[in-house]
Amino acid sequence: MTRKQALDRAVQALAATGQNEEAIRVLHILSDELPLNRWTEAAIRDSVEQFILDNGRAPTRTDFKKKSLPPHSVIKRRFGQTLQEWLDENYPTERPSEDERHAEATEAFVREYLRIQPVSAEDYNARRAHPSMGWSAIARYNHTRRWRILLEKLNLPVYSSRSVPDAKPQLKVNIILDTDFGDS
């Protein structure tokens, strides 16, 4: 028995009960698509919907390299647009703006900076937790290329490599009073 024949029998059995109208409708669609040697619009949409159910999110372009989703070229031929255009139109996802991404990265930098208390840019990059960004990317987001200016812009404390805090310089003045003006 072929898959198509099995589906036709299942449809007949369900139809005899007078229930499961939606299941019967879907089984008819599947039966019409058999044998599965091409991606119909319904099959494409069904595969995406199943991906969403399985993963709790809409698929990305990278996800379309998986077996359960059609290849990029199928989307291009079937809908006349790139995969990303098709996804944006049919399964839009909310993406943060560039400013929001920069603000989020800067906040993460500040948290990491305060956690590790680096004494230099190199120290920060060496000790930061990955995948946090390096200091130079955060500096560009904040319109500078210099470590000290970045720290000033973000109002961050500057840490010293010395174990003792910098002491305030003190001025010592010795006053010598010579009251002997010579008695003449």
Structure characterization notes:
This protein has 184 residues and is mainly alpha-helical. It has 9 helices and no strands. It has helices at residues 3-17, 21-33, 41-55, 72-79, 83-90, 98-116, 121-127, 135-141, 147-153. Helix 1 (3-17) runs antiparallel to helix 2. The N and C termini lie far apart (139 Å). The model has no long low-confidence stretch (mean pLDDT 85).
Structural descriptors:
0% strand, 184 residues, mainly alpha, rod-shaped
Alpha carbon gyration radius: 35 Å
Query: Could you give the order of the helices and strands?
Result: HHHHHHHHH
Poorly predicted sequence stretches spanning 5 or more consecutive residues = none
- C-alpha end-to-end distance: 139 Å
Helix content: 40-55%
Return the average pLDDT rounded to an integer: 85
Report the sheet with the most strands, covering strand number, pairing sense and barrel closure.
Answer: none
Strand content: under 5%
Structure classification: mainly alpha
Task: Give the number of helices.
Answer: 9
Shape by Cα distribution:
rod-shaped
How many β-strand runs?
A: 0
